[in-house]
Each structure stands twice: as structure tokens, then as C-alpha cells.
Amino acid sequence: MPMNTQTDPHAITSLPQLEALFGAVGEASLKKEVDYLHPAYQALIQASPFAVLATSGPDGLDASPRGDPPGFVAIQDDKTLLLPERRGNNRIDSLRNLLTDPRVALLFLVPGVGETLRVNGRARITVAPDMLRRFSMEGKPPHCVLVISVESVFFQCARALQRSKLWQTAPPSRPDVPTPGAMLQALTASAIDGEKYDRELPARQKSTLY
């Protein structure tokens, strides 16, 4: 059973304790944060094919992946980003959250680059026809587009990716971890046939990518 702050005598429970644990913030770490999309930061967004979108709602938090060719998140201006919402599993956890809490956080990754880019802001959901046409892929428009008003932008240093060796250890084949079908079969007490699910998944993903 995990310890809570009442049973853990070493729990950090105050800001002074936390600040003492890590020390002062460096000058560069403070100055790198701005409230707009600086051209240097725009370059990272334009090169990124993958981002993680974080939202908050009445049922909890959500962080989910987004990906497309580099530059798939469009820069409308230095205060606005446009993120197309494409086909998925229809859980729409992120979008549900946005209906009650517009706050979002984005983490952009660029393959081969250790630094990541963090963007915080507020989003609204639009189905404006011109927006949907703008982001069509293979003749198929997204379900909707997120219009993100930027409030804070800064890059994250490369230490996490250096420690993980994320771009250095890409395996030539799938690592020895459970497949989607194996996980579903285990989670549903075999109500879902895992082997059948895995066998059909590549074709289903290919036909429903957009």
C-alpha cells in the first residue's frame, strides 16, 4: 500500500521544502519562457511530427499523442496554433475536457533533437468548413480543429532524452512487450480474442489512418 503524507515522514509538503530540494532556478531557465511563439520556437514546431496534448476536466487529467507529417500543428500567428483532430478511438477524452476547461499543454518532440518544446494555453474546438478543408489529408478532413491561444512557451533541456537515449536505441523490431491484442485479451478475461485483434489491426489502422 503506498504511503501518504500522513504515514511518510519524508514527504515534501511545502514550497520552501521543495525549493530547498532543487535549489535556485538558473537565469537561462527563466529567460527562455515567453508568452508568444518566437521564431526560434516556431522552427521546432514546424519540424515536429509528434506532440503530446494534456488537458484537464471534471473526470480527471488526460495526456494523449498527436502525430502527422512535420508541421502538422500549424502556426496561425505568433499567439495562435491550429491542431487538427483526426480519426482515433472515439473516446475523445481530450475534447470532452476542453468543453469544461479550455486549458491545454503541448509537448513537441523532433526526432534526433534532445530539446523538446512546451506550449501552454487555452483551446477552443471549431468545425469551420475552411479550417477542415485546410487540414484535409488524403482527401479526408479532420473531425475538428483546436484553435490554441498561446500563453506560455519554452524549450525543455535535453537531459530526459539523453538519459533515456530515446533517439539512440530505436529497436529494429518491436521490443518484447505485450501487443495491443495481448493487453486487451488480458484486460477482458479473454472476451476479446487477442490473436485475431492483432492479426486484423495493421489493415484496420491502414484503412482508417485518415
Give an account of the 3D structure:
The chain has 210 residues and is α+β, with helices and mostly antiparallel strands. It folds into two domains: 27-164, Pnp Oxidase, Chain A (Roll); 176-210, no CATH class. The chain has eight helices and seven strands, in the order H-H-H-E-E-E-E-H-E-E-H-E-H-H-H. The protein has helices at 15-22, 27-31, 39-47, 93-100, 129-134, 159-164, 180-187, 194-207; strands at residues 50-57, 60-67, 74-77, 80-85, 103-109, 116-126, 144-156. A seven-stranded antiparallel β-sheet has the order 2-1-5-6-7-4-3, covered by helices on one side. A hairpin with a 2-residue loop joins strand 3 (74-77) and strand 4 (80-85). It is globular and about 55 Å long.
Number of strands: 7
Gap between N and C termini, in Å? 44 Å
Q: Would you list the SSEs in sequence order as H and E?
A: HHHEEEEHEEHEHHH
Radius of gyration, in angstroms, nearest whole number: 20 Å
Total of DSSP H or I helical runs spanning 4+ residues: 8
Overall pLDDT, averaged? Answer: 92
Which CATH class of the largest domain is shown? Mainly Beta
Q: So what's the overall shape?
A: globular
Low-confidence stretches: none
Largest sheet: 7 strands, antiparallel
Q: Return the domain count.
A: 2
Strand numbers in spatial order across the main sheet: 2-1-5-6-7-4-3
* Helix-strand category: alpha+beta
**CATH structural fold name of the largest domain:** Pnp Oxidase, Chain A
Please name the CATH architecture of the largest domain. Roll
- Going by CATH, what is the homologous superfamily of the largest domain? Electron Transport, Fmn-binding Protein, Chain A
- Beta-strand share of residues: 25-35%
Task: Give helix % range.
Answer: 25-40%
